[in-house]
Design brief:
Layout (H helix, E strand, L loop, with lengths): L1 H136 L3 H15 L1 H33 L10 E5 L4 H7 L4 H10 L2 E3 L6 E5 L3 H17 L4 H30 L8 H9 L4 E2 L2 E2 H19 L3 H10 L14 H11 L4 H4 L1 H4 L8 H15 L8 H16 L4 E7 L4 E6 L6 H18 L7 E5 L10
Parallel strand pairs: 7-8
Antiparallel strand pairs: 1-3, 2-3, 4-5, 6-7
């Protein structure tokens, strides 16, 4: 019983404590809510106050912007009015000027019409005057002009010719001065020595007994050599020497190399001769190829674009001569000279260089094929795919008037190389014959007294009869002689024509 009462009292005490705790908790929550409401009201009031300030500021700023816009609009309207005023003034001024121009045009039209009338009247007066003069003189206008010109020409012929010669001389001197300067610089840069060659080759023997061994029993050795090489062996009284004669320099080289091998070996019989000739041909082929490659290397031409067969043909020129001049050396020199001239004259240097090197390529095969070397050269260069600018050089350097600047340069370079002292030579018979042909060509003109070919045929002096040839005709005659020499004769370099006309009067006082 007591335990039950104690339990009840405990529960009652616990319930009262809980009630007191929850009552205090509720009171505290109520105070917190009230504080939060107060803060919220304060925040709202602060926000409303700031909003009012912002609205005031925004309203002031908007008013200021509207005021500025009104001011800008006012300024723009004033400027527009000012521009409109200036435009109206300019339009009025333009209208006034147009009226003035119209008045001036009318005035000019009237003056032009008046001038046309006056010109017509003047022409009519001139025509009438001319008719009256023709009636008085008995000559038409054309006849009078022709007669006047003929009289002036007769009276002042010497003066006119003197003036013409002076102008021609001035032009010639200036051209020659520039040409000498360019060519002189080129020749100085491209200087080379020359050794003339002939159509025979000499082979030195250790002793005269070797001649008999070369001839062989019943001449079988010499016959075998001549048959295999295509050359003739001349064995005469010249001590320790055999002469190889042949038109083809390649064959002469094969024969010379073969003989040199046979003499060094000492065994000379038909079988060994055949072996020596085969060895000589192989060595010569290698030497020819090397000569072509050396020529390209010396000129700085890449062998990448050159067919090996063409290099071989180029190398054959090493054993080809013209008037004693080695053609390969001549071709290299022409290429160098043409390159230097092309640089001075603004031509295509690559065309000048290759065209100068291959301009005589036809001479490498003209002993074996039919035709002139210019045409053969064109065929060779076309075959190996060269363009027209290069293969044309083969025939261009033989034409009187080449059609390209590069061809003219190659032609000049060819003449320079061939005209060098010691570069080429003629035999005595050819030399005399060339001088006779030169004199006979000049003697074919009328009014010539004497003709002398001097300076190895590089100059011809012509003495004319002063009574039949006057100064004017003397100038024309010199030109005609030069043209005839160009058309009928072949010669290296150029021929200078000097025509001399003089009158000598002799009287005796007794």
């Amino acid at each position: 019983m007591y335990e039950f009462i104690a339990l009840v009292l405990g529960l009652a005490a616990g319930g009262g404590g809980a009630a007191i705790y929850y009552g205090q908790k509720a009171k505290s929550a109520k105070l917190s809510i009230e504080e939060a409401n107060a803060k919220a009201e304060k925040i709202v009031k602060d926000a409303e106050s700031k909003e009012a300030e912002v609205m005031v500021r925004a309203k002031d700023k908007a008013i200021k912007i509207l005021e500025d816009a009104r001011q800008e609009e006012k300024k723009a309207l004033e400027e527009l009015k000012h521009q409109q005023k200036e435009l109206n003034e300019r339009e009025n001024s333009f209208s006034k000027k147009m009226l003035e121009i119209d008045d001036l045009k009318k005035d000019l039209d009237a003056k032009a019409e008046n001038l046309v009338k006056q010109s017509t009247e003047v022409e009519a007066m001139k025509l009438e005057e001319s008719k009256k003069l023709e009636e008085v003189a008995g000559l038409t206008q054309d006849q009078a002009v022709e007669r006047m010109l003929s009289l002036v020409e007769e009276q002042h012929q010497d003066t006119l010719m003197s003036r013409v010669r002076k102008l021609e001389q001035m032009e010639t001197d200036e051209i020659e001065r520039k040409a000498r300067n360019i060519i002189g610089v080129t020749i100085q840069r491209i200087a080379a020595s020359h050794v003339t060659e002939t159509t025979t080759t000499n082979v030195e023997l250790p002793n005269d007994e070797m001649k008999g061994r070369v001839i062989g029993r019943e001449g079988r050795n010499i016959k075998a050599i001549e048959q295999l090489t295509g050359c003739e062996l001349i064995i005469d009284d010249t001590p320790n020497m055999i002469t190889i004669s042949g038109f083809s320099p390649i064959r002469r080289q094969v024969a010379s190399r073969s003989l040199t091998k046979l003499i060094a070996d000492g065994r000379i019989h038909p079988g060994r001769i055949e072996e020596a000739v085969d060895e000589a041909k192989k060595e010569l082929q290698l030497d020819i190829k090397k000569a072509g490659e050396d020529a390209l290397f010396e000129l700085g031409i890449s062998m990448a674009g050159i067919d090996p067969k063409l290099v071989q043909i180029l190398g054959r020129l090493k054993y080809r001569t013209s008037y004693g001049q080695n053609i390969l050396q001549h071709s290299i020199e022409v290429s160098l000279i043409a390159t230097a001239l092309g640089e001075e004259l603004g031509a295509d240097v690559a065309i000048c260089k290759k065209g100068g090197l291959f301009h005589d390529i036809g001479k490498a095969v003209d002993h074996d094929l039919q035709g002139g070397h210019p045409e053969l050269g064109v065929q060779i260069l076309k075959k190996f795919g060269f363009p027209e600018e290069i293969w044309y050089q083969s025939i261009g350097h033989h034409e009187d008037k080449p059609k390209t600047l590069e061809a003219v340069i190659v032609k000049a370079a060819d003449a320079i190389s061939g005209a060098r002292p010691g570069a080429r030579k003629d035999s005595l018979e050819q030399y005399v014959k060339r001088l006779e042909e030169l004199e006979n060509v000049v003697k074919g003109f009328d009014g010539i007294d004497k003709v002398y070919a001097i300076q190895a045929g590089r100059e011809v002096r012509v003495f004319v009869n002063p009574m039949s040839i006057d100064d004017f005709n003397a100038t024309n005659l010199a030109r005609e002689i030069a043209k005839k020499i160009e058309s009928e004769l072949k010669y290296p370099g150029e021929v200078k024509v000097t025509l001399i006309r003089e009158t000598r009067i002799t009287e005796y006082a007794r």
